[in-house]
DNA sequence: TGACAAACTTACTACTTAGTAAGTAAAATC
DNA sequence: GATTTTACTTACTAAGTAGTAAGTTTGTCA
């Protein structure tokens, strides 16, 4: 008997990775089991249904994001540094086997995933937007960012564009992703 | 015996719709057959493999886009009108049962679709970008658009953002999609 | 030391998947 | 009018899917 927490965490890690690589309909319990060297039923023991597994992955992601943004390491950064940190999350995904944003992956397949997952995705997306909006707002007030319109709309545009850019990079290469990030920064220049 | 062209076209219409609704891994030959009131094998008669069907959908989409942009209806428009026409394509997708961009849908599942499809998606994405870049270039030269940096990068950002915004709208509603489009226009204002 | 519970395996079910081979009815072509 | 071609249906196959029930091993704790 190995430690509970390790098995469960390893499954979540693999599921998260597969979600961002192949999509929810693109991986199966058999893939996870094979990779871990266990049987299918072992995965069902920890996560009875695929919906349970998907929900757990997103819930963990949400918790992690909340922890990050409330950590002084991020909280005390300047708006520009906060934005750079934000972009670096996506740059890291691109570097990590060309993964895409969890939210984008699930929203592309939104109408063929369980409802419980849809609700979880909605929650995560709102949290990402809210933080980005606050960061853009703070940056404009302190005069380091410049843009027209509502911070909420600018946040929606920037988040959509990095989400889309990670997908674009799969067909057109990493350079295209970097171009989008650079353009997004350029469009905030005072 | 019904007409060849009608059957084939009906299958393509349904497949395109399902691709933009559920994703490549989210629909099956059985779905199409049931909807059309025929048997599975009838679909295989027209498109031997699912890869053949997917390729045909994207090839038709590429042909359609080429026809549109070379038609005087679009070719003779002003840069602003061209951009509005471009955005209207995506607005129409959103109105049509919350569909997403074909390219975004396939790129989200890129690593779990056949290689022949990947190549076709790459081609389509390049064509979309090329046209948008030319339109932005023309608009900046004639003084109706204003932006920093390369037109190619601005095109990549705008295309990524509408692609991402259609996905975002599935979780957060149509208003969010419209907000992104308005912000994109605002960011081009002279 | 014995009961219990955690973390599995074995062995399975019911269903869906893409894909095929052989047959059939009707339309088009010679 | 006979032959061929088109557009299917019928009837499969082999593989993969999520999920379950019952048994087994192994560590923990009273």
Plain-language structure description:
The structure is a homodimer. The first copy, chain A, has about 190 residues and is mostly helical. Chain A has a domain at about 55-185: Tetracycline Repressor, domain 2 (Orthogonal Bundle). Chain A has helices spanning about 5-20, 30-35, 40-45, 50-70, 70-75, 80-95, 100-110, 115-140, 150-170, 175-185. Chain A is elongated. At the A-B interface, helix 7, helix 8, helix 9 and helix 10 of A face helix 7, helix 8, helix 9 and helix 10 of B. The structure holds a DNA duplex (30 and 30 nucleotides).
Summarize the structure in short.
Two copies of one chain form a homodimer. Chain A is an all-alpha fold.
Tell me the CATH topology of one domain in chain A: Tetracycline Repressor, domain 2
Oligomer: homodimer
Q: What top-tier CATH class of one domain in chain A fits best?
A: Mainly Alpha
Largest Cβ-defined interface: A-B, 53 and 53 residues
- In whole angstroms, how far apart are the ends of chain A? 59 Å
What is the global morphology of chain A? elongated
Could you tell me the strand content of chain A as a percent range? under 5%
Specify the biggest β-sheet of chain A: none
Would you report the number of β strands of chain A? 0
The helix/strand class of chain A is mainly alpha
The unreliable regions of chain A are: none
Percent in helix of chain A: over 70%
CATH superfamily of one domain in chain A: Tetracycline Repressor, domain 2
Please, what is the average pLDDT of chain A?
96
CATH architectural designation of one domain in chain A:
Orthogonal Bundle
The secondary-structure element order of chain A is HHHHHHHHHH
Number of helices of chain A: 10
The radius of gyration over CA of chain A amounts to 18 Å
């Amino acid at each position: 008997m190995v430690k509970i927490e390790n098995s469960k965490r390893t499954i979540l890690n693999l599921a998260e990775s597969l979600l961002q690589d192949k999509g929810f309909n693109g991986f199966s319990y058999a893939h996870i089991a094979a990779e871990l060297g266990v049987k299918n039923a072992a995965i069902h023991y920890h996560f009875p249904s695929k919906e349970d597994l998907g929900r757990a992955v997103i819930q963990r992601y949400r918790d992690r994001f909340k922890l990050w943004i409330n950590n002084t390491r991020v909280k005390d950064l300047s708006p520009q540094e906060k934005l750079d940190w934000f972009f670096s999350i996506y740059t890291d995904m691109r570097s990590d086997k060309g993964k895409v944003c969890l939210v984008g992956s699930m929203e592309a397949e939104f109408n063929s995933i369980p409802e419980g997952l849809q609700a979880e995705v909605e929650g995560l997306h709102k949290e990402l937007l809210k933080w980005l909006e606050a960061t853009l707002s703070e940056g404009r007030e302190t005069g380091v960012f410049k843009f027209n319109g509502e911070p909420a709309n600018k946040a929606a545009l920037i988040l959509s564009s990095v989400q889309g850019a990670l997908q674009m990079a799969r067909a057109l290469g990493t350079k295209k992703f970097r171009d989008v990030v650079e353009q997004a920064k350029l469009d905030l220049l005072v």
